[in-house]
Design brief:
Helix 2 crosses helix 3, helix 4 crosses helix 5 (99-114) and helix 6 packs across helix 8. By secondary structure, the chain is α+β, with helices and mostly antiparallel strands. A hairpin with an 8-residue loop joins strand 2 and strand 3. The protein is 51% helix and 19% strand. The protein has helices at 3-18, 24-31, 35-48, 82-95, 99-114, 126-139, 159-165, 167-184; strands spanning 22-23, 51-56, 65-70, 144-146, 150-153, 188-198, 201-208. The strands form two sheets. A four-stranded antiparallel sheet has the order 4-5-7-6. It is elongated. It folds into two domains: 3-70, Orthogonal Bundle (Arc Repressor Mutant, subunit A); 82-208, Muramoyl-pentapeptide Carboxypeptidase, domain 2 (2-Layer Sandwich). It is built from eight helices and seven strands.
Length: 209
């Protein structure tokens, strides 16, 4: 763990074990650090939503003291393992007989959900549908580039997973495009996806219907 993250974790632990809100000087004394260092990490915890800052009424004359307390719930400052989660789910799909079908189906459902839908009672042309699909792929970080009846995908946000699980990840991508175009009720459909069709891109082929 990086030193700064380790210190922030220690700061949160100090708040959790205190039993009562702590001031900057209290935290600095418990951790053996300068008050400015304690204040920096306390404010960062507040910004992250892991702690809350309040004013404590003085028992006598004087200004209210700023105190900090940990918010209830799990620590959100730790690392995440989303890639491992994706590997777990993809390995399960890869082990099943209908994994590719399920991957494409999941992509379709998400494509329907993610696409920017047109106004009610309007018809979507093939050109408009391609533009909306390209905008969706750009939002998903595929770096799309329309090219005739195809869309060149110059970046894969799941590249390492695609290299490891190949067709399953591509089926999800293809499903997203098919679901989006189906939701648009457009006269165009995603006919297929050629992974790494070019040295620096995959190629999604579109077909007018």
């Amino acid at each position: 763990m990086p030193p700064e993250r380790h210190r922030r974790s220690e700061t949160l632990d100090a708040l959790r074990t205190a039993g009562a809100p702590l001031g900057v000087a209290d935290v600095a004394e418990r951790l053996g650090v300068h008050p400015n260092t304690a204040r920096f990490h306390l404010d960062a915890l507040v910004a992250d939503g892991a702690a809350e800052r309040t004013l404590e009424r003085p028992s006598g004359p004087g200004r209210p003291r700023t105190v900090y307390a940990a918010r209830p719930g799990m620590d959100r400052s730790g690392s995440r393992g989303y890639r491992l989660l994706a590997q777990i789910l993809l390995s399960r799909l890869a082990a099943g007989p209908g994994g590719r079908v399920e991957a494409e189906r999941a992509g379709r459902e998400w494509g329907r959900f993610l696409v920017d839908r047109p106004p009610p009672f309007s018809r979507t042309s093939a050109g408009d549908a391609t533009e909306r699909l390209t905008a969706l792929l750009a939002d998903l970080d595929f770096a799309p580039e329309p090219s005739g009846d195809a869309v060149r995908l110059r970046h894969c946000p799941f590249l390492e997973l695609a290299e490891e699980y190949g067709p399953l990840v591509c089926d999800v991508h293809l499903g997203i495009m098919r679901g989006a175009l189906a939701e648009l009720d457009a006269p165009v459909e995603a006919e297929g996806l050629e992974p790494f069709a070019e040295p620096g891109a995959c190629l999604a082929r579109l077909r007018r219907t």
